[in-house]
Design goal:
mainly alpha, Glycerol uptake facilitator protein, 8 helices, globular
Amino acid sequence: MRRALIAEFIGTLLLTAAVVGSGIMGEQLAGGNAAVALLANTGATVAALATLIAVFGPISGAHFNPVVTLTALWQRQLPAGQAAACVALQFAGCCAGAMLANVMFELPAVQASMHPRTGAAQWLSEVVATAGLVFIAFSSPSVSAAAWRVPAWIGAAYWFTASTSFANPAITIGRSLTDTFAGIRPADAPGFIVAQVAGGILGAMLLRLFAERRVPA
């Protein structure tokens, strides 16, 4: 359990650092071209997520996301105490990762983001992105399958959702601590988190629906 919790903290820290740091680097090098910056942000996030799932998946399940952990709890894959500790460390790891990225680019460790992200379209996008994430993660037959399926979904959702697919309450809080390309205003974070929880519930419903109707090979 201790190794699993440490893995979740380190995994969320590095994932958030990759998301925020690649956003900063992409924006600096793109010369004002938001599409190029988003492309750089997407590529780094997908690569980091795939690597972290492959490395930490056998140790902790590589949740890196409170919604995923709560879904695992609902499916009785881990005890309540471990789930609570895991969620706490995921939030701590995401905050630490955002601070690390800020410092690596010589910015103040903690910034209140001024990047507005709100409205029904973005909330709906978070529902869709999170539902897909939960369904794909838990329907993957192995860690090796999840290591490409989950990043592929997140990478695609960066581009087909209006919110650029946060799909994670912990990383939403972390991204509120950086006033850079990947940031979100603290005032907008609660709306995203509510939508992500709703998406997690929808993803769990899809899991139950298709698990009950799975056709044997």
